[in-house]
Design brief:
two-stranded antiparallel ribbon, alpha+beta, 13% helix, single chain, 6 strands, four-stranded mixed beta sheet
């Protein structure tokens, strides 16, 4: 990314941060085998200037992008909306060019098995590749980061 877009900073989030012996950080229940990694989206300010190494949330998670969903609200789910938290985050926007390029680069890497992303972002970013999939309505949301899994 930094070769194609000089000055780009890629932020790795959770790759496996167990709280107990092998138990992953909730809601990332699949992050327990060293094959999954989350990357923060790339962001820009309201004027369209790229923000290197910045995310609306101080931890890179839970600053969800607005978009439609077909998921219904259920009592037991790891798909947290955290609507009460959204007003606390900076009003940065996903920098589409870099984010699209990162996802595209991951799709052509033969080691990458799948990438999880919310359907509305798959459409917005124009990344309709077979490897880019929806994680389902019972798993953690993927409209605040890129999740990918290697073979």
């Amino acid at each position: 990314m930094s070769t194609r877009y000089p000055g780009t900073v890629t932020i790795a989030l959770d790759g496996n941060f167990p709280f107990l012996d092998g138990f992953p950080m909730i809601p990332h229940l699949s992050h327990n085998d060293g094959r999954k990694l989350d990357l923060a989206f790339f962001y820009e300010d309201e004027k369209g200037h790229y923000l290197p190494g910045k995310s609306p949330s101080p931890i890179g998670y839970f600053a969800f992008e607005n978009g439609s969903t077909n998921c219904t609200s259920e009592w037991f789910t790891l798909r947290w909306d955290l609507f009460w938290l959204q007003p606390l985050w900076r009003d940065d926007r996903v920098e589409e060019t870099r984010t699209r390029a990162a996802i595209t680069w991951l799709t052509v890497d033969q080691r990458v098995e799948k990438i999880l992303l919310e359907p509305h972002l798959r459409s917005t970013l124009g990344v309709g590749y077979d490897k880019v999939r929806f994680q389902g309505c019972h798993a953690a949301r993927h409209d605040d980061h890129i999740h990918f899994q290697i073979r």
